[in-house]
Amino acid sequence: MSKKVENLLRDICFRIKVKGREVLKEFPITPAQFDLMQKLYFAGEQTMTELSRMLGIAKSTTTGLVSRLENEGFVERKRRKNDKRIIIVVLTKKGEYVIDKVIFKRIEFVEEVLKDFDNNSKEVLVSLLEKLNNSVKRRGG
């Protein structure tokens, strides 16, 4: 049962991700750069070390991603107000626009898929997903 649930969740998440990433064709952004931008969007400003840890990649790789995104105006580096020695990476309005557009595309796709469900089924689905999400969070996932 667990194997089936994991497989279904992975497949669903992958298909939604792919649909949303169709938007990236409009921008000079790689999937790796998008992942970095998405981390900033949801977690807020981060240091290079924090970003590297979140993404599970080397700091040198993170630096390259940030540099290219900064050159395109999607992120910027700033000094922390309380400690000028620390450089943070911040998503710009242009970067936020890209993430918002991808999320909107994902939501549109999910809405289209949910047309196959009656209202009761949608409510049951949401309830079960919330229960699953809470259980995952409790276990540190």
What does this structure look like?
With 141 residues, the chain is mostly helical. It has a single domain, classed as Arc Repressor Mutant, subunit A (Orthogonal Bundle), CATH 1.10.10.10. 68% of the residues lie in helices and 9% in strands. The chain is built from six helices and three strands, in the order ααβααββαα. The protein has a three-stranded antiparallel beta sheet. A hairpin with a 7-residue loop joins strand 2 and strand 3. The model has no long low-confidence stretch (mean pLDDT 93).
Pick out its properties.
141 residues, mainly alpha, Arc Repressor Mutant, subunit A, 3 strands, 68% helix, 9% strand, globular
The helix tally amounts to 6
Average pLDDT across residues? 93
Structural class, by secondary structure, is mainly alpha
Fourth CATH level, the homologous superfamily = Winged helix-like DNA-binding domain superfamily/Winged helix DNA-binding domain
Number of individual domains: 1
Major sheet attributes = 3 strands, antiparallel
Q: Kindly report the CATH topology.
A: Arc Repressor Mutant, subunit A
In short:
This protein is mainly α and 141 residues long.
List the topology elements.
Layout: H1 2-21, H2 31-43, E1 46-47, H3 48-55, H4 59-71, E2 75-79, E3 87-91, H5 93-114, H6 119-138
Antiparallel strand pairs: 1-3, 2-3
